[in-house]
């Protein structure tokens, strides 16, 4: 009945439209937006048939030693998606009493070179002792792991075929638009490829899986075992690697995520050529430019990446880029928000000289920078210190100590402040490299407390000008009040020297 009613209404609307066109004395004009194909794309059978042979099933096994009957692990330790969703490629593992167990997993992959290079997800093969690739024609080959990149959850395998394999080409994911048709192919159970079709639902998704998140979201069904399979455009080109889903049950609910080829293609090339990644490195700590920070430094809009620290010995430890700079363009690419910078830097070749456009003291300027290698920087200083995009949100915590806090503290914006002498440095265990004005106490309901400031933090700058005495802090705040500023921009160091910019509301 409902269907008939909808049909009747449709006929009535059509009759009314025809009548209107006859009265107007001309043909019926259909708006461009109304010229849609109600039945979706034409058959994709020919396209799917030409691609199925290049999509493979990847079977892995891992020997797990156990003293008891522990359950089969659902997510490998260290997986970048451990906190976001449960893996959807796992198969069943067997248990053999207390003698340990063999965990078997299934996933998908695809051939990117006829000589035998196969792309997949890192979490599909992570921790595997044995990797076997099952092809659509029923043949099987043992695979060797060429290299992995946990930061993007990608991995490259190599098999030794007797004849060239069917491979699929990469396309340009940057040309894909929301609403474009896409096809996902997986080979989850080794029974042959499974094909689903949908559209691109969104682009540039950040699901907090890693520092370079830029996922394509699609409603093409991605189910258990499809992880590592390709996402194709309607030309038969790979524009994404199916990696993650959001699902309470493990099945598709129309929210799937793929690593775009604009990021993945270069990773696979590096893994093939070097067996490892070789990412560009700028050597800065950055944080987002909030509306309050933008207002405090005179920016008309909140955009770019705020430089909160320079890594000692890094590529820009020569004064070319300074703390307080806001990077708004890198090598011709706009940096609209903080997370854009790590990605464009990582995609740039090591040793390349690039132009960096930044804002300093309210003026736009361009500096030339030669990039280092991120992996070398990680070995030199530790990953947490060198990865652009991790931010500087670590809060300095005052140590538990029975010693008295420094006396004669002034109060400003709900903070007790004092010159940073030896007594204060010893009390709060502040490293020698930190210079500024120590915060001795913070009122619980103050604006400073809202921003996560704690006793033992040190005010290094106010309004991008260094301060060394409590009197200077009071003078700067008073000046900002006289200028009717709503917020005070401060550079804060914790007791270990980690820097961050914050804004504190001026009451």
Structural class: alpha+beta
Unreliable segments (pLDDT under 50, ≥5 consecutive)?
A: 1-37, 67-98, 383-387, 389-407
Largest sheet: 8 strands, antiparallel
Number of helices, where a helix is a run of at least 4 consecutive DSSP H or I residues: 11
Instruction: Determine the fraction of residues in helical runs and give it as a percent range.
Output: 10-25%
CATH architecture of the largest domain: Beta Barrel
Number of domains: 3
Portion in strands: 25-35%
Biased composition (Low complexity): 394-403
Protein name: Probable periplasmic serine endoprotease DegP-like
Region (Disordered): 374-408
Enzyme class: hydrolase
Give a quick rundown of the structure:
By secondary structure, the protein is α+β, with helices and mostly antiparallel strands. It is built from eleven helices and 29 strands. Strands 1, 2, 3, 4, 5, 6, 7 and 8 form an eight-stranded antiparallel β-sheet that branches. Strands 23, 24, 25, 26, 27, 28 and 29 form a seven-stranded antiparallel β-sheet that branches. Strands 9-10-11-14-13-12 form a six-stranded antiparallel barrel.
């Amino acid at each position: 009945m409902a269907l008939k009613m909808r049909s009747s209404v449709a006929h009535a609307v059509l009759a009314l439209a025809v009548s209107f066109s006859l009265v107007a004395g001309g043909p019926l004009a259909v708006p461009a937006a109304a010229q849609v194909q109600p039945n979706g794309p034409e058959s994709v059978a020919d396209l799917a048939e030409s691609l199925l042979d290049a999509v493979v099933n990847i079977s892995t096994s891992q020997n797990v030693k156990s003293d008891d009957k522990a359950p089969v692990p659902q997510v490998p330790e260290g997986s970048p998606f451990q906190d976001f969703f449960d893996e959807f490629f796992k198969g069943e593992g067997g248990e053999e009493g207390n003698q340990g167990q063999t965990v078997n997993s299934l996933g998908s992959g695809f051939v990117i070179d006829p000589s035998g290079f196969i792309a997949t997800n890192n979490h599909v093969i992570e921790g595997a002792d044995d990797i076997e690739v099952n092809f659509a024609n029923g043949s099987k080959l043992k695979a060797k792991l060429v290299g992995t990149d946990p930061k993007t959850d990608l991995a490259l395998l190599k098999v030794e075929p007797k004849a060239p394999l069917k491979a699929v080409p990469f396309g340009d994911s940057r040309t894909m638009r929301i609403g474009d048709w896409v096809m996902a192919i997986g080979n989850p159970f080794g029974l042959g490829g499974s094909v689903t079709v949908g559209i691109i639902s969104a682009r540039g998704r950040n699901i907090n899986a890693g520092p370079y998140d830029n996922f394509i979201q699609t409603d093409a069904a991605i189910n258990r075992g499809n992880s590592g399979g390709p996402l194709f455009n309607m030309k038969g080109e790979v524009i994404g690697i199916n990696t993650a889903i959001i699902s309470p049950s493990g099945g598709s609910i129309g929210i799937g995520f793929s690593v775009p080829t604009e990021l993945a293609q270069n990773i696979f090339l590096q893994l093939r050529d070097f067996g490892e990644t070789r990412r560009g490195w700028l050597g800065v700590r950055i944080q987002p430019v909030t509306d309050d920070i933008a207002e405090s430094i005179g920016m008309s809009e909140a955009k770019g990446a705020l430089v909160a620290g320079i890594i000692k010995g890094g590529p820009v430890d020569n004064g070319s880029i300074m703390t307080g700079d806001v990077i708004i363009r890198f090598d011709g690419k706009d940096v609209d928000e903080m997370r854009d910078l790590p990605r464009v830097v990582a995609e740039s070749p090591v040793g390349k000289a690039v132009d960096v456009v930044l804002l300093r003291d309210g003026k736009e300027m361009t500096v030339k920078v030669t990039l280092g290698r991120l992996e070398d920087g990680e070995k030199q200083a530790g990953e947490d210190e060198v990865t652009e995009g991790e931010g500087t949100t670590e809060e300095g915590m005052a140590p538990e100590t029975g010693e008295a806090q420094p006396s004669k503290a002034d109060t400003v914006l709900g903070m007790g402040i004092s010159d940073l002498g030896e007594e204060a440095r010893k009390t709060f265990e502040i490293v020698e490299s930190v210079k500024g004005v120590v915060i001795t106490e913070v009122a619980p309901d103050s604006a400073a407390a809202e921003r996560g400031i704690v006793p033992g933090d040190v005010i290094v700058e106010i309004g991008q000008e260094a301060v060394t005495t409590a009197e200077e802090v009071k003078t700067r705040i008073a000046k900002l009040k006289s200028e009717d500023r709503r917020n005070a921009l401060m550079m804060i160091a914790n007791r270990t020297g980690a820097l961050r910019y914050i804004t504190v509301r001026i009451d």
